[in-house]
Amino acid sequence: MKTKLLVIIMLSIIPFSFIYFYNKHDDFKGLKLENLGDIPALEIGDIIFRYGIGVDSELIAKASGGNLTHVGIIVSLNPIQILHASTEDNPKLKNQVILSSFDEFLSHATNITIKRYKLSSNDKSYIAKTYSRYVGRAFVIEDKDSTDKLYCTTLIEELLNPLVNLHVSYSTLDIAVVRLKILYPITLFNDDRSTLIYQYKPL
Predicted confidence band at 144 (pLDDT cuts at 50, 70, 90)? Predict the structure, then answer.
């Protein structure tokens, strides 16, 4: 299925009047590093959640009941690089897994939250050595259970599963004859195996 399937389905179930809310973000250009204040030292394997600036985020938030709509994982520290599956963050690399700098990731966010799993040095080394195999893979949402699924949360799940027993469950979304099982970012955030280390919300 096309990578925009999730957005199309959400549009079909959310009143179009809700889209008007998106206009409040039209002039917002995203966060910058200086907005964050004292952020703790980051580590490989840290999970960075954000609420985005696009209409997709409004729709995902409405469908999931959460205020976090995208997620990436830190795979390098010098410089900081965030691995994530994105549809439009990089106009030249749409609908695929990409690497973004911290600044680039923030530029699409209105708030961020960072959580951390307890990872050993070997675990972090594993992430640093294996993340490159995901770069460039297609962003895919299937209409059935499939090993081809790859979007922001399933990327994290696939990368961390050999290291951490994630406590997450998929939500089911039924639209006409289409049934999707979706792992929402807010579900990954609520995993009690991870610890909150930072949160930024504008006043």
Answer: low
